[in-house]
Design goal:
Layout (H helix, E strand, L loop, with lengths): L1 E5 L7 E2 L2 E2 L1 H17 L4 E5 L10 H17 L3 E5 L6 H6 L9 E4 L9 E5 L2 E7 L5 H8 L7 H14 L6 E7 L1 E2 L19 E2 L9 E5 L5 E3 L1 E6 L16 E7 L5 E7 L6 E6 L1 H4 L8 E6 L8 H5 L6 E6 L6 H4 L11 H13 L5 H20 L1
Parallel strand pairs: 1-4, 4-5, 5-6, 8-9, 9-12, 10-11, 12-14, 17-18, 18-19
Antiparallel strand pairs: 1-15, 2-3, 7-8, 13-14, 15-16
Helix pairs in contact: 1-2, 4-5
Length: about 375
């Protein structure tokens, strides 16, 4: 059995106010092409299809066209769940007219979790689709007021899914959450209420041959290799700059052994951090990547961002290296200065600001200003 696992598309998202629609179009093309090229039996999308509960109409149309393409051009089944960014009801509505032999789409939590059953030469593979659910929704669905954490919810969902498994079937779970030991990034929303614990233990998934996870944006495994995050197809923050994004091609043999191979995405615009002097950066080749620019100039550069955007139209963030130094490096040396030595205070300030004290012209101007102030004090 061959699966293609992806997640966290976040359709409709922007990067610093810049639309990602063309970037998502390229990503969806690559997913559809991989489904066809590798003749996968099922495409698994593990939540956060959209970036918000009410996505823009263009994002909905984009995703509908993608699903239509997968259906028309491949024989793959589609398994999809809602994530914490999605409207569960919106995702659930997609299942109403779905061919249940080729798709399992789950948006809202339920007390019963019947799997999608696919057959290969070795017998059945059962795929359970467990949508993200807040505790209050799970308590209502399961009639259990003791469900008080993401782990409680996941445990209840897995128990319901396990109860519906056909005997002897190899088992795949699609779920959305934070598994203990995994690495998070800046772009992910917390899944627990303030003061709560949002992680779930990987041992909850014992018995499943493969667990297709969503929510965390870095490709990684948690607990064991087969409990895996495919990661997001695009970088959504500068903490993910330079990371290679991928989807996971998963093969399950007749005895349940799993082989996982990443298929890298090829983004049309990258996310990078560049550093250097302003004048030197302006000489670099034109790039449409999303950039954080760190200037090493000692003094502030006038109109720096506008000039940079002539070369880097998607430059999003500007900082100076001297402002990013550790506090102990920037701290003023020596004993604190008293106000009885204003020249020394000004010199220390300039040294902290730009790495050097006043030059001759600045020193003359400072002395003239101080002399003028002293003259006013004497007249008073």
């Amino acid at each position: 059995m061959r699966l293609l696992h992806t997640a966290d598309l976040h359709l409709g998202r922007q990067f610093n106010g810049i639309s990602l629609e063309p970037d998502h179009a390229a990503v969806l093309d690559q997913i559809a092409a991989a489904v066809a090229e590798h003749a996968v039996d099922a495409l698994v999308i593990a939540g956060d299809v959209f970036d918000r509960a009410a996505p823009p109409a263009s994002a909905v149309r984009q995703f509908n066209a993608f699903l239509a393409r997968v259906r028309a051009e491949t024989g793959a089944a589609v398994v999809m769940i809602a994530g914490n960014h999605d409207s569960g009801d919106r995702i659930e509505a997609m299942s109403v007219m779905t061919d249940t032999a080729r798709a399992l789409i789950r948006g809202t939590v339920a007390a019963e979790e019947p799997p999608l059953i696919l057959e290969d030469a070795h017998g059945p593979v059962a795929i359970s689709a467990l949508p993200f659910a807040w505790e209050y929704a799970a308590r209502e669905a399961f009639g259990d007021e003791s469900l008080a954490s993401p782990e409680d919810v996941m445990r209840a969902q897995i128990a319901a899914a396990r109860a519906a498994l056909p005997e002897g079937a190899r088992w795949v779970i699609a779920a959305h959450g934070t598994v203990a030991g995994a690495s998070v990034s800046e772009a992910e929303r917390p899944l627990a209420r303030i003061g709560g614990v949002e992680t779930v233990g990987a041992e909850l998934f014992d018995g499943a041959q493969y667990v297709a996870l969503g929510h965390l944006h870095r490709p990684q495994s948690a607990g064991r290799p087969e409990v895996r995050y495919a990661g997001a197809p695009l970088a959504f923050g500068f903490d993910e700059a330079g990371e290679e994004k991928s989807m996971s091609l998963v093969e399950i043999d007749g005895v349940g052994e799993v082989r996982i191979a990443p298929i890298p995405f090829r983004p049309i615009r990258g996310v990078r951090v560049i550093e250097g002097r302003h004048a030197d950066l302006l000489k670099l080749p034109l790039s449409t990547d999303f950039l954080r620019v760190v200037l090493t100039d000692e003094a502030p550069v006038i109109d720096a961002m506008r000039r940079l955007r002539a070369v880097f139209p998607n430059a999003c963030d500007l900082a100076y290296a001297r402002e990013m130094q550790a506090p102990e490096v920037k701290a003023l040396g020596g004993a604190p200065r008293g106000l009885d030595d204003p020249l020394a205070v000004i010199g220390d300030f300039l040294t902290q600001l730009r790495g050097e004290g006043p030059d001759a012209a600045e020193l003359a101007a400072i002395l003239a200003t101080l002399d003028g102030l002293r003259g006013r004090e004497e007249e008073a």
